[in-house]
Specification:
CATH superfamily of the largest domain: Umud Fragment, subunit A
Helix content: 10-25%
CATH architecture of the largest domain: Ribbon
Structural class: alpha+beta
Strand order of the largest sheet: 1-2-16-5-6-14-15
CATH topology of the largest domain: Umud Fragment, subunit A
Strand content: 25-35%
Distance between the termini: 33 Å
Number of domains: 2
CATH class of the largest domain: Mainly Beta
Shape: elongated
Length: 251
């Protein structure tokens, strides 16, 4: 059972806001005001204390930044399981909390962006992948080589790569980043994909270990949550935090 934090936060903010408004404009703010219903003093005091805090958190989380934890190794080596990241919510438009209705256009994903999105089959689940194909693109993935609109994307072996750490450097637009090809003989979901309008083709950096658009199809623009921009903590299980990852920009 998933918990809808946005819904809970919005409901609490609205509830405490209503109580504060009633106390100010209907019941009167004086502690001895006779208009306030009996037994409401405690609720009013709690609402006065928590409403500003809840409203601040709701605005920050809905429109500016939202924290997100990396749950798996599908984005290795860029992101590790246990990374805590900031997602910039206003990169691709401002959306109302819960309803997810866009109220202001602020931009669109660019090729190479690392994006958090809601899974179309189950919008309560968030995924994080890299934008590979833009609307109208033809994306071909064959024998671990990526072609976009007939042009092969540059790929070279990382200078520090080993058989245990099979890293490569890929150039997507202006974004140079590392990817993993853990099994060169494993051809996972090779094929040709045409990206529909208002959709984006997502792939993970761990190319042989990810459920991305090769399996779940292109992602509609309406399901985008925001752009992953920076790591603010790394902690996986009971181990000590990885201090060297804190503050790293996501490439």
């Amino acid at each position: 059972m998933s918990i809808n934090l946005a819904l809970i936060l919005t409901a609490l903010t609205v509830l405490t806001g209503i109580v504060v408004a009633l106390d100010k404009f209907v019941w009167g703010r004086d502690e001895k005001a006779s208009g306030r219903p009996a037994g409401m003093d405690t609720l009013v005091e709690y609402s006065r204390s928590f409403f500003p805090v809840l409203l601040f958190v709701l605005v920050i989380r809905s429109f500016i930044f939202e924290p997100f934890r990396i749950p798996s190794g599908s984005m290795m080596p860029t992101l590790l399981q246990g990374d805590f990241i900031f997602v910039k919510k206003y990169s691709y438009g401002l959306r109302l909390p819960v309803a997810e209705t866009k109220i202001l256009e602020t931009g669109s994903p660019e090729r190479g962006d690392v994006v958090v999105f809601r899974l179309p089959a189950n919008p309560s689940i968030n995924y994080i992948k890299r934008v590979v194909g833009l609307p109208g693109d033809q994306v071909v993935y064959e024998r671990h080589r990526l072609l976009i609109n007939g042009q092969e994307i540059a790929l070279e072996q990382h200078p520090d790569a080993t058989s245990q750490d099979p890293r490569f450097i890929e150039q997507l637009g202006d974004r140079e980043h590392e990817i993993l090809i853990t099994n060169a003989a494993y051809m996972v979901r090779d094929g040709v994909n045409t990206v529909p309008e208002c959709h984006y083709f997502m792939m993970a950096d761990n190319r042989d270990n990810s459920r991305d658009s090769r399996f779940i199809n292109s992602i509609p623009e309406t399901h985008l949550v925001g752009e992953a921009v920076r790591i603010w903590m790394h902690m996986d299980g009971a181990s000590w935090p990885r201090w060297d990852r804190i503050g790293n920009k996501i490439q």
